[in-house]
Specification:
The chain is α+β, with helices and mostly antiparallel strands. The chain folds into two domains: 9-104 and 179-213, no CATH class; 109-174, no CATH class. 39% of the residues lie in helices and 19% in strands. It has helices at residues 8-19, 76-83, 90-94, 109-125, 133-142, 150-159, 180-201, and strands spanning 23-31, 34-41, 49-54, 57-62, 68-71, 105-107, 176-178, 212-213. The strands form two sheets. It has a six-stranded antiparallel sheet, with helices on one face. The protein has a two-stranded antiparallel sheet with strand order 6-7. Helix 1 packs across helix 7 (180-201).
Length: 216
Amino acid sequence: MVHSISSPADKVAARFKRDTSDHQMYVLHDDGLYRHFRFRSSRTSEFWFDLITWPGCLTIRGDYGDTYTFNRELDMIPFFRDERRWGINPYYWAQKVDGGRRSVKEYSEAVFRQVVTERFVEAVRYGDAPRGLGMAVRAEILNDSCLYDEQEARKVLDAFEFKGFRFEDNWEFSYQDYERSFLWACHAIVWGIARLDKLRSYGLQSLAVAKVVTAS
């Protein structure tokens, strides 16, 4: 009944490495807090992204999904650089996005399955689960083909009944997770700033506009 559910963040991390394996860095503008850096492959336009900063803000946009603007410090580059040693921090960074953390979340079928599984385990732990409940949950809920849609998934859960057992107060539970494009953007910010720091360590800050920098 209980399955190991890999984290969407882990999947996105692996995907990001593949998507950017041939990326190079282009300096479009670099003047104090006003910066514009582009990262893209020399072979294809897929998965390019820009990091753009101005006082108090950092925006990331590109060929990966939504555009996100972060607000926290006057200079957002050091903010993300300081955080880099811990890896990405979607929970904290989402609070700094224009629109707030809810704006970067979406329904996740994986989270729904995980929550249902955890609630079943809790019912067993407290002796509330009738014999055969696990098989019924798997057959009638987890094997349902409509779980990709949140409304349909909630209907399936609300309708479930087995030997008098029901999952109660389902409206209290959230099945949201961070958008994959947001997680991808978080990885891109950390990766891009690392490339920028390497560029500067080479003493190449005065490169001409749009001249390619391999910095890999």
